[in-house]
Amino acid sequence: MDITFRTYELSDRTELEEIFLQNTPKYFAPEELGDFLEYLDIFGDDYVVAVVDGRIVGGGGYWIRSSDHQGGLSWAFLRPDFQGTGVGKELAQYRIEKIRETGLAKTIMVETSQHSFGFYEKLGFKLLSKQSDYWSKGIDLYSAVLEL
User: What are the percentages of helix, strand and coil residues in the chain, rounded to 5?
Assistant: First the structure.
């Protein structure tokens, strides 16, 4: 499996929207699609697309706020048939490394759900808090941090 990562391009939008919908409603509430598309419009330069054997299989964003030395991961998802293959782990590690390379962040935050928290916990993220039914009914907010 040949995995590459590259910066989001406008031509990726439709395919990422389709993959997002494949992860709804388990990982995302249907009403979050508009938020995700708006995110791409504003922060697309910090969104990474995962490509396996020439095919887009998912993506994830990252951000850095130098004012408080905080980095973060956002809007990560994969095609369901690529979940559990190691692509997600490589995508997360790639984005963590992008943040680390800047030298501006001391911690990396992720706000995820109960469905994905275990994945981030295996990467070293520590749970800060959780809130029931935050994203939508049945999808809880898990806030976690990774110390750099």
Answer: 40, 40, 20
Euclidean distance between CA atoms 16 and 38, whole angstroms: 13
> How many Cβ atoms are within 10 Å of 38's Cβ, its own excluded?
10
Number of H helices, E strands in the chain: 4, 7
Residue pLDDT, tens place only, 46-86: 999 999 999 999 999 999 998 999 999 999 999 999 999 99
**CB-count exposure of residue 122 (10 Å: 0-12, 13-18, 19+):** exposed
55 Cβ contact list (under 8 Å, min separation 6): none
Helix (H), strand (E) at residue 55: strand 55-65
Pairing state between β 126-136 and 107-112: unpaired
With beta carbons less than 8 A apart as the criterion, state whether 56 and 5 touch.
Answer: no
* Domain 3-147 CATH superfamily: Gcn5-related N-acetyltransferase (GNAT) (3.40.630.30)
